[in-house]
Every structure is written in structure tokens, then in C-alpha cells.
Design goal:
By secondary structure, this protein is an alpha+beta fold. Among the domains are: 65 residues, no CATH class; 129 residues; 112 residues, no CATH class; 96 residues, Jelly Rolls, CATH 2.60.120.640. It is built from nine helices and 32 strands. Strand 21 and strand 22 form a beta hairpin. 14% of the residues are buried.
Length: 622
């Protein structure tokens, strides 16, 4: 028979004892047995069978594969983890403890991100803070908008920072936790906390800029690098809570002027009105009514006031008013109207709480009336000329008095005085004068201070041609005084305070037909022969110069544009090769020898003198 094995099992029926010997026939039974045995042999296969469907062939193939142990499985898993293409992560395999060790790269944090859909109506930029404001249908993708701390709706669902720039309606990535890099953090410092700002999508850096009510507090993360283009923030969003979002606070129907009150029974803080603060049962109105009733019994009863045995001692309003007025009048007494209140008195002393100390300090700076000593530059009224009292004499008075009187120290007359004073000096003069030209003879008077020895005159004098008097007595030069400068007289012995020092000087004698230093310099320049100058390049010529040309190439010498009459310039071919390297003298707008052409020097060793004669002929060449 044909067998179904190995596709399916054959149903082989053994003959029963009651079966006839030929049903089935003996040969048929042997044929069925042989077919089954042959099918089994084909399936099992002979040794080293080439039949790929035989068991012998397949077992032999398995025998060539190494035994797959636990160690082999562990090594294979380790190879996957330690692959070199991991980002921001290193993985090592400990073959002894059979552990895979994962380590983040130094300075780099792992991050969690989320794909979102831009739902702002405009472009979302990298680094902007966003919040969830919806989802896209069955896909479940979040829609996001720009966060702001100005409202609960735009702050409470803040969950990350945009990692890329995304057009409206497009899909982008938000870093919800971890490191975002490549953003502008130049206004921050490393380690600054990052807060949600009021401008949509913005952030605020630093503890000093931490938002406060009514703004909503949302912590965004920490600045890890402060830089304009490569800054970074570790994102870790933490949203602040509203008061009624705390787990042990229950606020229902909040109103103005309410407070929180703890209820130990419920374990909650609840909002209460002021009326019910000390009356949880809400019977404040009843308490007020009871208090009013208790007080009403005393409204008309003056005989039963607690603590007062004799009601006659009670002061009436009129009595209190009169007593207060009398006390105030006693304080004011006869004070003027502008100083009868404490405010007016305070204003009078400039609201100075330390007025006594201020006055004491001010008085300490004043000189005593007896033998005062003055500092600085004190002033006093100037007495009239001729005043002879104990009044203080100012410097102005002394000068006026000296000018109005005849000084015995120096009398300039044509004849000797008929009634000379003691110590008076007569100077024989061509004219009798009281006032001399200050540019010829001048008297300057000084009133000495104690121990003064140096006196400085206003106008320069000729040392040796001065006369110095002390209190009208002529002093000897070098013995009694010296003149170290043309303005200074130094006494050998110090003067006493009040000594009168007269200095008569001869100064700045007048002269005519003179020259100043500048005029003399100009005359010297005009009458000095030309100065030599060596040149080897193009040059702008200057009057009163002699130029020695030493160039090995042609060059141009430019005459002055605005020469003066009699200006002279000399040019010498010092190198002796002008025939090869011509020297061009550019006229610079002025004529040369009456013509309008430039001067060409082309003879070796030539010496040329140019003299400016005026605009008609210009420079004459000789």
C-alpha cells in the first residue's frame, strides 16, 4: 500500500484472530509492513545521508554547531550594549560579575524629549518655553503654545523647551528633562536658576530676578553654560502651586477679606470670613446682640459703675475740656503766636533734634571777645582817612592813609625841605612830584605781620636800583636786606607785626624804536645766507635753502606756491649726473624767467640760484 508517512501518520490495522487468512492476504500484509519500514528508513536516513529532509542529515548539521551556553548569551548581550555608536553613553561589561555598566559621558546629561505639534499660529524657535494646549486627534500628539508666567492657563501646563525651530503646524521636539544645548544664555551665569518669564516663550535668570505674585512661579532648570551661541540649560520643569492646589487646603467660594483657618477634624485649612473667625458656628450676630444687651443696662445708670465708689468724682466733658484748655494756656503763656505750638518751635530750630550740640559746636568756632585770634582772611569796616582812634585799621585804610600823607622816607623835590622830619630822606629831583610814572619809579608799601621777612613786589625791578625803608628808615642793601629775585626783598632780621616797609624801585624804563624778539628773529632769517640741505627724492622747495641733489634717478623739485619778494633758493647737482637723470623744477603757478615753462636742469654739476622778483618775471634763474 502507499503510505502517508512522513506527511501524515498511517492507520495500520493489525488482523484479528477471527479474520480469514486471506483478508487481507498474507502478501498484502507483508507489503504494507515493508512500505511502512521503507518510509521510516527514508525519514531517518542512512549514515551520512545526503537527503536534507532526513533526520540523520539534520542531526549531523546540529552536531557541527557549538553548544550555546549562558556565557555565550551574556557575551552577545554585552556586545550590543558596548557598541561604539552609543551617544553620550559608555557601556562596559564585567565578565566576572556578569554585569553591563552604563556611564554617562562627563559633563553630559541624559535627556527626555517629546514630539509635539506647533499650535501657536507662528514659528516656534529653539530655546522657547512651551506648554501643552491640546492634542492631535487619535494620534495623541501634543499641541503646544508659548508659555508665560502671566496667567495660570499659560504656565501650569509648562513642560519643556523647544529643541529645534518649527513652523506653524509642523512637528518638532521638546526637551522635557535633560540638557538642551546651542542656545543663547549670555545674560546668565553658570549655575543660575532659570524661571519662566512673562513674555511668551521667554526665561528669566538668577535668584534676584525670581518671579513673585501675581506672576506664576515656574522653575525651568539650571544654566550649565553661559554663552551667546553655545549656551546650555539642564531642563527640570517644576511648576509652582496655587494656594488652593495644596493637598491640605480647601478653598470654596473665596471672597475679599477672608482668612484661612485650620480645622483639626477635617485636617484642612479652609477659608473663613472675619465675622466667623472666632465663632465657627457662625453665631457672631447673636454674640453682638448679647453684648449690646449687656451694655444697655449701664447706659442710664451712673450709680453702679464698676471700680468707682463715688460717681461724684467722675469728670464731665465740660470739666475735661476746661482743664485741658487751662493746661495748654499755662504752657503757651505769653509766647508769640508764631511760637505757641511745638511744630512752630521745632521749625524755629530747623527741626534739629541736637540743637544744643549744634549751637555749642558753632560757638566753639568763634573767637573770644578778649584778645581774639583770627584765621583766614578776616574783614572789617574801613575807617576814613585821618581817623585816629582804637578802631581796627584795615589794609585799605593803611594804603589810603599812606597815599594821603607825605612819607618821611622819600621826599622828591628840587630843593631841600625847609622843615624836614626826623628820619626823612630828601632825593634831589628835576621836578617836584608826588606821583611818579609807575613804569619809571614806583613805591610799594607793605604792612608786615609777625616775623615776616620776605616781601614780593607787583612789578619787576632792577636789583641794586631799589631803596627799602622800614618805618621811614633807609635800610642798607646786603646788610639789612637782599634781593634774590627781581620781585623779592628779603630782610636780614624779621619785621615786627605792624612795621611799614616801603620799596622804591626803578622798573621797565621806557624806550623807543625797539624790536621784539620775534621781529629780530625775522630779520635774522631775512639776512642769513641759505641753509644747505641734501635731497634724493621729489621735494617741495622752501625759500632760503640750498639743495644738494644726490639722486641716481630723475626727480621733480616744486617751487613754493606763494613766494615772498626776494625769496631765494639754490639748487646744486651734487651727484654730477643731471644730463642722465634730469632735474625738473616745477614752477607751481609762478613764472620762471618771465615764462610759463618748468626749468629743466640737464647739465652735470650745475649750480642754479632762483630769486623771486615778483609776479611779472617770477623766479629769475642765475
Amino acid at each position: 500500500m502507499a503510505t502517508n508517512f512522513p506527511t501524515s501518520l498511517d492507520n495500520l490495522t493489525n488482523p484479528a484472530s477471527t479474520n480469514e487468512l486471506d483478508a487481507p492476504s498474507h502478501s498484502q500484509q507483508h507489503a504494507d509492513a515493508n512500505d511502512a519500514i521503507e518510509a521510516l528508513e527514508t525519514k531517518v536516513g542512512i549514515n551520512n545521508s545526503a537527503n536534507t529532509s532526513s533526520l540523520d542529515y539534520r542531526v549531523r548539521q546540529l552536531e557541527t554547531v557549538p553548544t550555546y551556553t549562558n556565557e555565550m548569551a551574556q557575551d552577545a548581550s554585552a556586545a550590543l550594549f558596548t557598541h561604539a555608536n552609543h551617544v553620550n553613553l559608555t557601556a562596559t561589561y564585567d565578565d566576572v560579575s556578569n554585569q553591563v555598566i552604563l556611564v554617562g559621558l562627563g559633563g553630559v546629561a541624559s535627556k527626555i524629549s517629546q514630539e509635539v505639534v506647533n499650535n501657536t499660529g507662528g514659528t516656534l524657535y529653539k530655546g522657547q518655553v512651551v506648554y501643552a494646549n491640546g492634542a492631535v486627534g487619535a494620534s495623541g500628539q501634543l499641541r503646544v503654545g508659548l508659555s508665560s508666567n502671566s496667567a495660570e492657563s499659560t504656565s501650569s501646563k509648562t513642560f519643556g523647551i523647544m529643541e529645534d525651530t518649527v513652523a506653524d503646524g509642523a512637528i518638532g521636539t521638546v526637551i522635557t528633562e535633560g540638557l538642551i544645548e546651542g542656545i543663547d544664555t549670555s545674560s546668565a551665569n553658570p549655575g543660575d536658576p532659570v524661571w519662566l518669564g512673562s513674555t511668551p516663550g521667554s526665561v528669566i535668570y538668577g535668584l534676584t530676578n525670581k518671579p513673585h505674585a501675581p506672576q506664576h512661579l515656574v522653575f525651568i532648570g539650571i544654566v550649565t553654560r553661559a554663552q551667546q551661541n553655545t549656551g546650555s540649560i539642564f531642563v527640570k520643569v517644576q511648576n509652582g502651586f496655587e494656594l488652593d492646589e495644596l493637598h491640605d487646603v480647601y478653598i470654596n467660594g473665596k471672597q475679599n477679606n477672608q482668612v484661612l483657618r485650620y480645622n483639626a477634624t477635617t485636617g484642612l485649612w479652609t477659608n473663613q470670613t472675619i465675622d466667623n473667625l472666632f465663632d465657627p458656628a457662625g453665631s457672631a450676630a447673636a454674640a453682638q446682640s448679647a453684648a449690646a444687651s449687656a451694655l444697655s443696662s449701664h447706659e442710664s445708670d451712673t450709680t453702679n459703675i464698676h471700680g468707682i465708689a463715688n460717681t461724684a468724682d467722675l469728670a464731665t466733658k465740660a470739666y475735661a475740656d476746661n482743664a485741658a484748655s487751662a493746661a495748654a494756656a499755662a504752657i503757651v503763656d505769653a509766647a508769640p503766636a508764631t511760637l505757641d505750638t511745638l511744630n512752630e518751635l521745632a521749625a524755629a530750630i530747623n527741626d534739629d533734634a541736637s540743637f544744643a550740640a549744634t549751637v555749642t559746636t558753632a560757638l566753639g568756632t568763634k573767637a573770644p571777645s578778649a584778645s581774639p585770634t583770627f584765621t583766614g582772611t578776616p574783614t572789617a569796616p574801613t575807617a576814613a582817612v585821618g581817623t585816629d582812634t582804637t578802631q581796627i585799621a584795615t589794609t585799605a585804610f593803611v594804603i589810603d592813609q599812606i597815599d594821603a600823607s607825605t612819607q618821611p622816607g622819600a621826599l622828591y623835590q628840587t630843593t631841600a625841605p625847609t622843615s624836614p622830619e626826623v628820619g626823612q630822606i630828601w632825593i634831589d629831583s628835576d621836578d617836584e612830584v608826588d606821583v611818579f610814572d609807575k613804569n619809571i619809579i614806583r613805591r610799594q608799601t607793605f604792612t608786615a605781620v609777625a616775623e615776616q621777612d620776605t616781601f614780593t613786589t607787583d612789578i619787576q625791578f632792577i636789583p641794586g636800583y631799589e631803596q627799602v625803608f622800614m618805618n621811614g628808615i633807609l635800610l642798607l642793601r646786603t646788610t639789612d636786606y637782599t634781593t634774590p629775585t627781581e620781585h623779592t626783598v628779603v630782610l636780614t632780621a624779621d619785621a615786627t607785626a605792624g612795621d611799614i616797609i616801603d620799596v622804591i624801585t626803578i622798573t621797565n624804563l621806557n624806550s623807543v624804536n625797539t624790536y621784539t624778539q620775534a621781529e629780530i628773529n625775522t630779520l635774522l632769517e631775512q639776512n642769513t645766507s641759505v641753509a644747505p640741505l641734501s635731497i634724493s627724492a621729489n621735494t617741495n622747495l622752501v625759500a632760503k635753502k640750498r639743495y644738494f641733489v644726490t639722486s641716481a634717478s630723475a626727480l621733480t623739485l616744486t617751487l613754493p606756491a606763494s613766494p615772498a619778494l626776494n625769496d631765494e633758493i639754490q639748487i646744486v647737482d651734487a651727484s654730477g649726473n643731471a644730463s642722465t637723470y634730469n632735474i625738473t623744477v616745477a614752477r607751481n603757478g609762478n613764472k620762471i624767467n618771465g615764462g610759463t615753462g618748468n626749468l629743466i636742469i640737464d647739465n652735470n654739476g650745475g649750480w642754479y640760484t632762483l630769486l623771486y622778483t615778483g609776479s611779472t618775471y617770477g623766479w629769475k634763474v642765475g
